[in-house]
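Continued from yesterday's entry.
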Amino acid sequence: MPSITKIDAYAIRVPIAEPIKVAFGTFRDRPMVLVRITDSDGAEGWGEIWSNWPAVGAEHRARLAVDLGQALIGTSFEPGEAFRHMSRLTEVLVLQTGEVGPVTQVIAGIDIALWDLAARRAGRSLAAFLSDQPMSRVPVYATGINPDGPELFAAAQLREGHRAFKLKIGFGRERDLRNIAAMRAEIGPDCELMIDANQSFDLQTAAEIANEAAVHNLHWFEEPMRVDTSLEVWDDLAAASPVPLAGGENLRGEDFPVWIERGALKAWQPDITKWGGVTGCLDVGRAAIAAGDDYCPHVFGGGLASLASLHVLAAVGGGGTLEVDCHPNAGRELIVGDLLPVREGTVPVPGTPGLGAIPDMRALSPYVTWASGDN
């Protein structure tokens, strides 16, 4: 088996015309960190590392990826083995630095790159490499819908082929309920409508919002409370809410088996670039399906994050839905291109080797703020 000879990373920042608002802050640009792994045969694999917050975090994570990746130089781990090896290797580092987020995010991006490399070497799409019977198309939902006139944004995405939509809430009850009603009126009764509070409510407020908004036939309610709220309180909210609960983008590792067994959430949303990569999220997706729940990967990054999440969902199957950011973002568009046209709420799964796309670093070069490689 060829060994790993080089790991490069690129921090990228794409300016945006209109800030994107969520309950805990505002995006004023779109950061992205790409990692490239090269083996002794010259084959390459690409991954993406979560870097949305803090606003200065992309460059730090890119440098950290090159530093941590040195532990793999000269090795020939299988992708899943490398994920577990790096997770064990960095346990004390995490205790020393307190940087559990950046470290797990870097390991996730490296894991994606190793799976991309392995699938490319096998000449198979990542979905086909992971499953003998992957889905050929997956359902998607439009996300990143701001609280300012969200029905106008949704109407445009409806015309583009979307049939499911997620609205950000947490901006005041009156405004939230007005926006939910306006969204439902705009998209009609047959489209799916979800809401995401980004951990902004307590139990009482979340239960009240869920009951008041349920009349609008919500598909699920994402992260209504802080993720560190006790499981007993999550049980209470699940019992009080007529709307199924969703979450998982801010869970890690051993959190998932405990939460899945508990049963408060019905839609599971790990972010493949934030924790787990392909290795961890594939396990979560399979466990969710086995529990009778949905696997709906969280995505709010660049093009490789979208493609990796798509392939894992296609491999897992079930009734899950892929998150699709509909805001302009060159970090996604210059990688995905026309691979994922939306038709009646679904997109095709690319059948070309690996993730299905190789970043064009020349096209992305105007947005690169730090790079370890020489091109």
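--- second protein ---
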Amino acid sequence: MFSSEAQRNADACRFCWMCRHMCPTGAVTGNEAFTPRARGLLASMVERGIGFDGDMAGVMYTCCLCDACAHDCVTGFKPSEYIREARMQAVVAELEPAEITQAIGNIQQKGNVYGLDKRLERVEKATKDLPLTAEVLVYLGQTAWYRNDEEAMALLSLLNKAGVAYTVLKDEPPSGSYMAELMGYTGDVQEMAARLAKRIDDSKAEYMVVLNPHDAFIFIQDYPRWGLLEGIQPMTATSYVAQLIEDKKLTLQRASSLTAPAAIHDPCKLSRALDETDAIRKIADSLGVELKELFLNRKLTRCCGGVPLMMYKPALVKLIAREREYDAVRIEVRKVLTACPDCLHIFGAGTSGEVEFSGIFRLLDENCCNVRSE
């Protein structure tokens, strides 16, 4: 059932407890079945003749795939290797939870994991008159189009103010990032990626600025190994905007609205998967923001729970989000900045309101002195 590499990882993890404190789902529930060790034990049992069933599949879907466990592993093992493969086998055998079946169907039929028919009006209006081709292509992602447009609108405004010639794909297709977490790196995911890559190539862009770290991860890590996106450079929106500031394309004033220290929430796909933690802090520093670091920051960050897990276990994701909120409360911070639409959506829906989670691009746009250029 599993590849030799996945099985090697599972066999190593099955009797090891050393990363259990880093697992977001295991930590907030205290449920041993929700730890990397338990998932490794299940995978090794399957390879030793125990039948793979729906209950086992459900356990594999309680993982955020945030790789906190792998980052904490001194011996270099990676539980996400066997978890992704287990999810692929679950879908092939039709053993995945009904909520996962629905989420996959939403992406295939409606182009978004949320199953919504209508995109957010502000983003539609802001992008409808853009040219078909440009030097810079901006990829916004499903959450920005359908659930939380705060950072999308701020990013587009900043690009206008900086005089960047950019475009956005009409009816932007999904990148395959959520699908890869829901069903593994299947042929369906690679076909979805190939279709999108063709649309990206047609834009004639030299650079692709990616708002959602989830999408940036698959563009930067997986598309090249599938032979896609040759000739275009994908980059995170945070790194691109930080460069605009360094190049003095944006004129900024001090963020006077922040009279108390704030904190940065590092999205796990940005910090741990892509090894980017400085750009967002450079943006905050350019605004004179006084920062206090959260417990578990930078590459040790705590995942917000993630949109794929939210589709399956929304109550579990709320627990994880509230734990992150508590990380801010215990260092006496009442404002947390991030750059991920997924994180903002999850924190907005899942926290108590004691801490305000806000977008770094929104704060930057509010304190940018450039005259808007359309």
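The two ends are 54 Å apart (CA to CA). The chain has three domains: 4-96, 121-246, 263-366. Will compare against the first tomorrow.
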